[in-house]
Amino acid sequence: MLSIYPACFFKEKKGYSVVFPDLNWLATSGKTEADAMKKAVECLAGYLYTLKMDGEKAPVATAMRAVSVEKVAKELDADSKDAFVNMVSVDVDEYSKAHFEKAVRKTLTIPAWLNAAAQEKKINFSQTLQEALIAKVRGL
After folding, report:
1. Which residue ranges make up each domain of the chain?
2. What's residue 48's pLDDT?
3. 100: which residues sit within 8 A by CB, 6+ positions away?
4. What is the pTM of this model?
């Protein structure tokens, strides 16, 4: 499903800052306008994916015509001179399959006795390694 949110693009000395007012002032930046748009898509996808994984609902997007770049700039104490509003869209399910959930093959070495014992108990090596790595990364 396509998700579309308005984003305010602010020209900076070196690139662009991008802010999503509807999403708790979620922000990113890019070196060029095209790079800023790419980073905005990545940022939006990551935020919406996290909401989905946490079981939270995404806020309703404001219509682009209802977003005042001047008001957003004032709120952020930013210069609105070369700022503009653009809609940023992403299919979170498709994006997450390609970027967040894509499986990566890893080769590893374990002692032969551990391999034999795990196979005897029909342990799924990939699932077990993923669970252990998730626990380690989350500090569990």
Report:
1. 2-99, 105-140
2. 96
3. 46, 49
4. 0.72
